[in-house]
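#structure-requests
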Amino acid sequence: MKRIKAVFLKEFSHIWRDPKSLLIVFLMPLVMIFIYGYAISYDLNNINIAIIDNSQSDLSKELINAYKNNGYFTIKNSLPNNSGSINLYEKWLKKGIISEIIIIPIDFGKKIRNLTQTGISYIIDGSDSNTANIIYQYNEQILNSFSNSYQGMNKIVDINTKVYFNIEVKSSFFFIPGLIAVLLLMISALLTSLSISRERESGSLDLLFISPLKSYEIIIGKTIAYVFVAFSVEIIILLFSRFWFGIPIRGNLFLLFLFSLIYIITGLAIGILISTIASDQKTAMLATLLATMLPSIMLSGFIFPIDSLSSILQYVSKIIPATYFLKIIRGIVLKDASIIHLYYEGLILIIMSIIILSIAIKKFSNERNKAL
């Protein structure tokens, strides 16, 4: 018992002497409980849709009002069919502005009044299989409620649904590109977060401090070295996803790698920043996992739609790099989106990488000045 007591006291003293690790040990469960408590929800609100009302009848307007007043959907636009409306809406669908297009046929009102078979067409963004399934269920619920309000209508209104970008609505098409984004950020940050911490522990960091190299040269040199490693990891994951899971890559690979480079630099910058703060490799690893993996999984749209989060967490999601790269990789891989559709997300990642890298260089310079 004395030996067990001695080991216990020694381990306790190690923990007590490392307050940063102790903080993470206590903080992580609280953060997880907070995030899980608010993030886990499959309910969707304010789904952006567009409607093409070819009928322009009283009944079609009543159906549109049913969509306006149900609390699930937000109608971004409602136009009669013309030469450009469907093309405009499909561009919005590809860009992610809307999640669904509803097309009401020209003879909708007339056929219903004559108790003749008619139908409504739905075009749904299927790149997010969970959201697509929920939207489909909401459509059925609204249409059934609308039909039941008129005697005999429930037998003559037919639903004609098309799913874009993921015809079979496979979950793997949605999750695997998202998983690539999560893993890429975590690996990139982990690689560099351990770099400076490792040198600090081995004592070789002092040699860098007294070298003629400037602080930004040290940081950028370390960052560039790990870009190639992170790129290799991404290529392997993409190849495995393509040939094992059959994930299509419909967009431009060069554009995907260009955005990936920006994203990887952002992740590496996060790791450098963590390594300038962490006292050892263990703390750096735990901090990296806490800062990258957990928010990327729960708050970026990887599993749960951002619209289902509370308003506070929706604002938090805007500072998570994976939130923007998820739109990029899913847009390119599944939707064949171009730079016109994704320039905003790319610009945000560039700004993030510059800000985080600048802070990391500044903190490294301060540490170096104190040591010298």
